[in-house]
Design a protein that fits this description.
By secondary structure, the protein is of the alpha+beta class. It has five helices and seven strands, in the order ααβαββαββαββ. The strands form two sheets. A five-stranded mixed sheet has the order 2-4-5-7-6, covered by helices on one side. Strands 1-3 form a two-stranded antiparallel ribbon. The mean pLDDT is 84.
């Protein structure tokens, strides 16, 4: 082997070690953060429940409704945290399962819209923007909904006002595939962070709630669905996440 080849191998090993060290650092940060992430909504649920239980007769109907709403919000957040951890476990053990069938994308998007409208806030319009013509796709509808809902929930964290729109359209570059999108008028993602947001444990803003697993899990799911994810974002103007999927499941080479 030449000297250059030895140097190339050495550089490759150094780079691999750096990546391993960074992965270990992110895992440790994740574990340290996880106890806080779980404790925060759990404390809120227990605290608001105690207030309702101990002062029920003293509270107005509006105050009771507000406490119930806060309990519901924190319960949903806790469920999402646990779901992320369970999905990570399935991904790590390669036991994540997919069930394929033929689905209407309009039907999937309308189901998501119904779920999201319940959690609507006046400052943000959350709406499915759909074409006139429906598109049918062979996919796992549950996992596809999980990806779109994860994008929407992520957008909620970074959008104080404006809109979060989602929908689908035929891929202009390939009639045999479809593009699904979620776009918002939120904070946007800095250019230097856009390549890393799909890495496991990575968080753009460490002060926002979340495990840093959601987008990584989305990427894994989309890859299992034989698709790809891309993002276009500008700080202060918002983000648009696009998932490109084949209309038919392609045979997997042995």
């Amino acid at each position: 082997m030449s000297i250059q080849e030895y140097k190339d191998i050495e550089n490759t090993l150094i780079e691999a070690r750096k990546k391993a060290e960074e992965s270990d650092r992110l895992k440790m940060a994740f574990l340290a953060n996880m106890s806080h992430e779980i404790r925060t909504p759990l404390n809120a649920i227990v605290g608001f429940s105690d207030v309702i239980g101990s002062t029920y007769d003293e509270l107005s109907e509006e105050e009771r409704a507000d406490f119930v709403r806060l309990i519901s919000i924190n319960s949903e957040h806790l469920v999402r945290l646990i779901d992320d951890i369970l999905d990570l476990s399935k991904i790590e053990s390669n036991t994540i399962k997919f069930t394929y069938s033929n689905y209407s994308l309009k039907s999937i998007m309308k189901d998501i819209e119904k779920e999201q409208v319940v959690k609507n806030v006046p400052e943000i319009e959350i709406k499915a923007v759909l074409p006139d013509d429906d598109i049918y796709i062979t996919t796992d509808a549950t996992r596809l909904k999980q990806v779109i809902c994860n994008f929407i929930n992520n957008a909620r964290k970074f959008t104080e006002e404006g809109y979060i729109h989602f929908g689908f359209m035929v891929n202009p570059e390939n009639d045999d595939s479809v593009c699904l999108f979620v776009e918002d008028t939120g904070e946007g993602i800095p250019q230097e962070c856009q390549k890393e947001i799909f890495d496991r444990f990575y968080k753009v803003n460490t002060f926002k709630q979340g495990t840093g697993l959601g987008l990584s899990i989305c990427k894994t799911i989309v890859e299992h669905l034989q698709g790809s994810i891309s993002v276009v974002s500008e700080v202060g103007r918002g983000s648009r996440f696009t998932v490109t999927l084949p209309l038919e499941k392609q045979p997997v080479e042995a």
